Amino acid sequence: MGNISEKVDAVSASHQTQNEEHPKKLKPCCACPETKRVRDACIIEKGEENCGDLIEAHKQCMRNAGFNI
């Protein structure tokens, strides 16, 4: 029978390894807030047809974050 702190440390290390292997999944609504904010402001002010470069930049950011866009 081991020391209780040894058991706690072992469980903690195991839990930490699991978190590293399966990081908390990022939601699409929370990804790339910088490009999303600029893109949305442009669309509101100038219309979607005039913001293609910002829309593409946001799509690329989303792809880089692991989303299939």
Task: Spell out the key features of this protein.
single chain; 69 residues; Helix Hairpins; Cytochrome c oxidase copper chaperone; 3 helices; cytoplasm; Cyt_c_oxidase_Cu-chaperone; metal-binding; 65% helix; mainly alpha; copper ion binding
Structure characterization notes:
The protein has about 70 residues and is mostly helical. It has three helices and no strands. The chain has a domain of about 40 residues: Helix Hairpins (Orthogonal Bundle), CATH 1.10.287. Helices cover about 65% and strands about 0% of the residues. It is elongated. This is Cytochrome c oxidase copper chaperone. Keywords: Acetylation, Chaperone, Copper, Cytoplasm, Disulfide bond, Metal-binding, Mitochondrion.
Write a brief structural summary.
With 69 residues, this protein is mostly helical. The chain has helices spanning 4-21, 33-46, 52-64.
Oligomer: single chain
Question: Beta-sheet strand percentage?
Answer: under 5%
Counting helices, strands and paired strands, the structural category is mainly alpha
| Helix count, DSSP H or I runs of 4 or more residues | 3
Distance between the termini: 53 Å
* Full CATH superfamily name of the domain at 30-69: CytochromE C oxidase copper chaperone
What is the fold-level CATH name, i.e. the topology of the domain at 30-69?
Helix Hairpins
CATH class of the domain at 30-69: Mainly Alpha
Radius of gyration: 21 Å
What would you call the shape? elongated
The mean pLDDT is: 80
Helix content: 55-70%
Q: From the coordinates shown, what is the CATH architecture of the domain at 30-69?
A: Orthogonal Bundle
Ranges with pLDDT <50 over ≥5 residues?
A: 11-22
Counted beta strands: 0
Largest sheet: none
Question: SSE order in H/E notation?
Answer: HHH
Protein name: Cytochrome c oxidase copper chaperone
Pfam families: COX17
Region (Disordered): 1-26
InterPro entries: Cys_alpha_HP_mot_SF (IPR009069), Cyt_c_oxidase_Cu-chaperone (IPR007745)
